[in-house]
Predict the structure.
Amino acid sequence: MFEWFSGRAPILVYLFLLFNCCFESLFPPYPSDVFVLVFSFLAGQGHFNIYIMYPFIVIGALTGMMILYYIGEKKGDALLGLMGRSFLDRLFPVRLIEKAKRSFTKRGDLIVLLNRFLPGMRAPLCFAAGIVRINKKKFFWYSLISVLLWNLFLVIIGFYVGSTWGEAANFLKQYNIIVAVVLIVVLVIFTVIYFRKRRE
C-alpha cells in the first residue's frame, strides 16, 4: 500500500486528502484519520510535502463541518423527523443529536472547540450546532482551531512517532481507548449525581 501511494502524483494525493477529510465530516463511519496518518507517515519518508499537505487536510475537514452546520441550520428539524425511521439514524443517531443540543445550551463554545477530539460525536455535534443556531462566525473560528490542533496532532504522530507504521497506528488506537474510558467515567459520575439529586 505504501509503495502504491508513494508513486502517486503529489497534487492528486493532496486533493484526495481534502476530499477525504470533508467526506468524514459528512459520513462519520468513514475513517479519514487513518488516511491522514498514512500520508503523514509517507511524508516523513520524503514522498510528500507535509507543509502543503496539512492545509489541504484542514480545509477539507473544516468544509465538511460547515456543510453539516448549514444542513442543520436550514433543514435540521425536518431531517430529525426522518432520522428515527431511516438509515440516517445510523450515521447521525437522534439520541446523540438531542444530547448535543442540550449540551450546547450550557457549554456550546467549549464543545465546538473540542469537537475533533471527540470520536463518534463530531458529525452529530456539527449538525446540532446548526439546529440550535450557534453564531456562525464563532462556530467557524472555534471549528478551525479544533481542526488545526487535531490534525496537527495526527500529522506529528504520522511524521515523527516511531520507526514503523504499526507504532503510529497503535498510538492512535490507545488514544481512542483512553478517550472512551474517560467519557464512560464522566458519564457514570454524572449519572450518579443525577440520581442523587432526584432522590433528594
In short: The chain has nine helices and no strands. Residues 165-199 form the longest helix (35 residues). The two ends are 60 Å apart (CA to CA). The mean pLDDT is 77.
